[in-house]
Amino acid sequence: EDDDDDDEEDEDEELLRRTGNFVGSSDSLPSGVLRMKKCLHANSARPSEDRLTTVQFHPSAQVVMTAGLDQSVSLFQVDGKTNPKIQSIHLERFPVHRAQFSVDGETVIATSLKNKMFYVYDMMEGRVTPVHTVRGLNEARVKEFSVCPEGGTLLLTGTNGYLHLLTLKTKEVVSSLKINGDVSGVAFSPDGSKVFANSEDGEVYVWDLRSSRCVNRFPDDGCVKGTSIAASRNGQYLACGSESGVVNIYSQEACLNSANPRPLRAVMNLLTSATALTFNPSSEILAIASRADDEAVRLVHLPSLSVFSNFPVSKRKIVYRASCLDFSPHSGFFSLANNKGHAPLFRLLHYKDF
């Protein structure tokens, strides 16, 4: 039995040596049982005093970031053993609602709950800059945002159905889009040219960011109130979460072209509001969660659209309430941010690269 453990250790060391320019595993991920191993919490070197709101893996380095209501953003090296802290910054009177790496991974953008100001943390320089004014932004607060795949821009979620495209370099709004009802989530097409936005009214809008035109809109099947949305990186799937806990999985192509697309599958495993959806980089797994209930996280296998039977299965709680989910750049690791101030970390054994 010990030999087995040693082999696994060797496999891990090998994994962490090669972050390689890995294109995709030739053997596709089997459905049913997801081979995984629980690791030390990603942030065990500095657990948070309060609820974590963000966990995100760095786009190119073996690093993970956590942030949350304890007014801090922390970076850890992911080695699966001790996950040492790289640095932690404290943001005075600024409980972090969301923090995200820029596309190039050189900066972190962090927003809070009640202010219009946000912070830009330049990791290379170790410099934290508050951004107090954004030209052309007529909103009382900046809370929800997404980093656009096309570098250098953020999409800010405003009130009354507004989305604002902000250029980071000049700190100004270059265009605004508007939907009916409040925006409940946004997701980008793989090339970043289109954005999918779902509304609290249960509709999905597709915008062309370059022309600022709405190119499609459709009702999310059976949805009364939309809560979250995610798109797979291979352009194949769009997932829409609702307050009832149902997650509809669509063909992304149908969502671009059809006035009334039917879901490929309605995933019914969550019994409370579906608040977080994330596809893994190889578009073989969709992670879904509700922050309204303990252990309410499921992993869906694609393309079979079936839920993995073995997560989270444990005699004791391991997840608690998860508000954010992420996979490392080549899916070797999966983590989530929970209400206990921890980021539980799992090694997905099918994937050989970080």
TrEMBL record:
Residues 1-23 are annotated as: Disordered. GO terms for biological process: rRNA processing. Keywords: Nucleus, Phosphoprotein, Repeat, rRNA processing, WD repeat. Its main location: nucleus. PROSITE patterns: WD_REPEATS_2 (PS50082), WD_REPEATS_REGION (PS50294). The keyword rRNA processing applies. Residues 1-14 have a biased composition (Acidic residues). InterPro entries: Utp18, WD40/YVTN_repeat-like_dom_sf, WD40_repeat_dom_sf, WD40_rpt. GO terms for cellular component: Pwp2p-containing subcomplex of 90S preribosome; small-subunit processome. Part of the small subunit (SSU) processome, first precursor of the small eukaryotic ribosomal subunit. During the assembly of the SSU processome in the nucleolus, many ribosome biogenesis factors, an RNA chaperone and ribosomal proteins associate with the nascent pre-rRNA and work in concert to generate RNA folding, modifications, rearrangements and cleavage as well as targeted degradation of pre-ribosomal RNA by the RNA exosome. Involved in nucleolar processing of pre-18S ribosomal RNA. This is U3 small nucleolar RNA-associated protein 18 homolog. The lineage of its organism: Eukaryota, Metazoa, Chordata, Craniata, Vertebrata.
